[in-house]
Amino acid sequence: MSALEIMDPKMDAGMATTGFKTFEEAIESGAAPIELTIPQLVDVFDHILACEATWQNGHALAQTVFSCLYLLNVDRTAPNALLHAFCKTTRASCSMIRTAIALADIHEEEDFITMAYGLPVEGEGDSRCLALLNTVEEVVARQLRGCKGGLSTKKKSLEDAEPLQDDPALEEGYCHAILCRLRFRKALYHILTYMDKPQGRGLEMARKHILVALSELQNIRSSSAFLSFGQAPDSVVESKERGSTASGRVAIGFDECVNRRLLAPTPPRSISILSWEDTLAYFEKLLQDLDRICSLPMTLGLEEILQFVMDYQKLKPDLFARARLQLLLLHDGKLLGRDPLAIALVKVFNVPQSVMANDHQTQAFTTQAARVTKQLLKIMCTNTAWQRRKLGRILQDWGNLLQQSKVTRDVSIEGSQLGDEVIQTENMLTAWVAEQTCWVVRQFLMLGFQLDLYSLSEFCMVYWYLDHVLLSALHYKLAKESQTTPAIDSPDSVKKKGKKKKGSAALKQPKTPKDGKFMYSVHLLQCYSDLCKGFIWMLTALTRDRKLLHRETIFNTEQERFFQRFDLLHKLMIPAPMSYFHYKDSTSQMHISVKELYQLSYDHFMAVQQHLQELGASAAKASELSAVSRTQLALEVKQMEQVSLRNRVALQIVHQVGPGDNLRVSFEFSQHPCFPVAVVKKS
After folding, report:
1. Are 136 and 94 in a shared domain?
2. Alpha carbon distance 639, 543 (integer Å)
3. Do the domain assignments include residue 497?
4. CB-CB contact of 126 with 92 (8 Å)
5. Which residues pair with 663 in a beta bridge?
6. Same domain? 576 vs 547
7. Coil, strand or helix at 35
8. How would you class 254 by CB atoms within 10 Å of its CB: exposed for 0-12, middle for 13-18, buried for 19 or more?
9. Which of the listed residues 28, 103, 158, 587 has the most CB atoms within 10 Å of its CB?
10. Phi and psi dihedrals of 550, rounded to 5?
11. Contact status, residue 193 vs residue 96, Cβ threshold 8 Å
């Protein structure tokens, strides 16, 4: 801002405009006529949909949806029944979307702008928009049936209803184009209405309307060929790459400069309305994401819901879909709108009623755990970048909760008469908190790969620390499943254990039971752990073999980078904090040759294959998995299988290279978002 001079045009949000300065000026000049031809009306409908998709992608209402002059004064469109019904329904839909996103409160300014800037987002009579839409839909449907019928039916139709346009040969095509757009608009309104019902009571009906909307979306796409055929010679046609209508013509009745004076006193954002193909692709993905939400079984427990949310985020849903998911999960602060989170946690802990009734420390712990879990669920519905920042902030809350669980245990043993029940309960609480803390840390580290935060020189240390977190999670997961007392190690004891075996484990990997609930998650952790170990030794060997070039940093050392990456995790009791010296002791295996390191890495990648088979078998028996989680797990298995296979091939090439060959190895995340594939090239 300091580089701009006072009175610079960039500083004026609404003064230097090329269009009309006011809405009244635009109307007086005839920029938004009410009497439109059918091709012009279709173009208006299409451009409104493109503006709506652009708005939901983070741009301001004033420069997108309400750049439509018809929406700025919907009552003015009353003489044109088709335009009036479409505009009213659009305004009502936008109001519901804006309200849902504001209530969910999981967005940043880059995601969505909730400010209306005084625009008429809500209008009187919008609740009756569906009746208007049904009326005009019936008229157009009757006209279309007349066009498809025989000669007698056509004569009767012409007597009952006035044709949409003058050319009888084009009447059927235009009726079809108008009708599928009206029905899509209607289905979208129904979806928003039914998904807004509490406790998931409208999800089944919403799914039916999603199928209708997807079907009409295909009809809209198929009408593009008819609409773009035989353009009028005086029509303004945009290129197909950037055109926002099916016909390719520029829609009339739009001017983004009219509302510039309503924007904040800052330089306006550069608005590029989505192209027609991008608009259709956006709505198709949005409907598919909403359908996955509607498929969520309302009988799932807390742990299954957490797994669903994590798998759902892998699909990269848009903001509105994430907002609807968050409102469904935490309606009125209750899990799925049914039970308070504290009660849901009691079911997870399997706490005896006698303990909950008499032990006040356990009650206080459950209340605090419910607050932190609610915060975690809300964070998991945010975008990837914000999610990682928020996870880093709540790590200390989970650390405090772990300390509270230990205090709860000590107080309960001394002051309660419940004996073994209290001890067993508190052990379960500690194991659960430890497992969830490891899960948050794991997510925090893995999101760094998706956001491209780590340099190649940091890969080895990140995979080393991630492996430590995974083994800790596996340890406490099995402790919770077997209902045994989890051992919480101090950093000194971890260091001693780490010296026993080269490399990797701060905690001894426990034996995996052959059956049990959530055993697929145990096998998944084992797959992740073996992948991390494979990369640790692969990167170490490539560095020592001078086949992996690191850019030397002059601003900080490797030890300083280690501290910057993991200082936040050192404040936690679990996973046990690991220092830079632990890392160097584990990875600087100078007594092992480079070829042995290559073989060690190859063995770990081979172990992934075995665990993937076990993962597939256990997932097939896991009845608690939702359809979304099952699909994502199958995709995860394929991705890890490809990562393991391709890296084994790369290791074989590097291992067999002759002394005269000069190879260079690079990494690319082409198969999995967190685990790369080695690419071997001759330098």
Report:
1. yes
2. 26
3. no
4. yes
5. 682
6. yes
7. coil
8. buried
9. 587
10. -105, 140
11. yes
> Which amino acid is present at 380?
M
Indicate whether 123 belongs to any domain: yes
CA atoms within 13 A on the CB side of 29: 14
Domain end (from 254, 275, 291): 291
Q: Please check whether residues 388 and 477 belong to one and the same domain.
A: no
Note the pLDDT of residue 477. 86
For the CA atoms of 350, 354, 358, 364, what is the dihedral angle to 10 degrees? 10
Q: Which of 628, 557, 94, 574 is nearest to 314 (CA)?
A: 628
The dihedral over CA atoms of 514, 515, 520, 525, expressed in degrees to the nearest 10, equals: -50
What's the CA gap between 187 and 288, in Å, rounded?
Answer: 14
Q: Does residue 473 share a domain with residue 593?
A: yes
Q: What is the mean pLDDT of residues 22-43?
A: 89
Helices (H), 149-202: 151-160, 168-195
Q: What is the pLDDT of residues 629-679, one digit of tens each?
A: 888 999 999 999 999 999 999 999 988 875 556 888 999 999 999 999 999
* Predicted confidence band of residue 466 (pLDDT cuts 50, 70, 90): very high
91: left (phi over 0), alpha (psi -120 to 50) or beta: alpha
Question: In which domain, by residue range, is 339 found?
Answer: 298-453
Side chain identity, residue 618: S
Would 492 be classed as within a structural domain?
no
Q: Using an 8 Å Cβ cutoff, are 42 and 177 in contact? A: yes
Strands 339-340 and 663-668: unpaired
Confidence label for 257 from pLDDT (cuts 50, 70 and 90): confident
Mapped onto helix, strand or coil, the DSSP state of residue 381 is coil
Query: Is 245 strand, coil or helix?
Result: coil
Does residue 526 sit in the same domain as residue 415? no
Q: How far is CA 545 from CA 539, 631, 647, 654, 657, in A?
A: 10, 40, 17, 10, 12
If residue 662 lies in a helix (H) or strand (E), which one and from where to where? Answer: none
Shared-domain flag, residues 354 and 258: no
Q: List Cα–Cα distances, 466 to 219, 575, 603, in angstroms.
A: 48, 10, 19
Distance, in Å, from the CA atom of 477 to the CA atom of 548, rounded to the nearest integer, reads 36
Could you give the CA distance from residue 90 to residue 112 in angstroms, rounded to a whole number? 18
pLDDT of residue 655: 81
Nearest to 189 by CA among 61, 293, 92: 92
**What is the number of structural domains in the chain?**
3
Condensed to tens digits (0 to 9), the pLDDT of residues 656-667 reads 875 556 888 999
Of 378, 371, 425, 423, whose CA–CA distance to 398 is shortest? 371
Q: Which residues of 272-293 are buried (b: 16+ CB within 10 A; e: fewer)?
A: ebbbbebbbebbeebbebbbbb
Does residue 529 or residue 261 have the better pLDDT? 529
Give the span between the Cα atoms of 520 and 523, in whole angstroms.
5
Q: How far apart are CA 237 and CA 625, in angstroms?
A: 50
Local confidence band at 568 (pLDDT 50, 70, 90 cut-offs): very high
Q: Is residue 463 scored above 90 in pLDDT? A: yes
Cα-based distances in Å from 479 to 82, 349, 431, 471, 540: 64, 13, 7, 12, 32
Q: Global pTM?
A: 0.86
Query: What phi and psi values does residue 514 have, to the nearest 5 degrees?
Result: -80, -25
User: Does some domain include residue 640?
Assistant: yes
Structural domain ending residue among the three candidates 453, 473, 500: 453
Does 355 share its domain with 273? Answer: no
Question: Of 674, 410, 437, nearest to 569 (Cα)?
Answer: 437
* Residues 87, 92, 98, 104, CA torsion sign: negative
How far, CA to CA in Å, does 203 sit from each of 193, 314, 333? 10, 22, 19
The angle subtended at Cα 218 by Cα 216 and Cα 223, nearest 5°, is 95
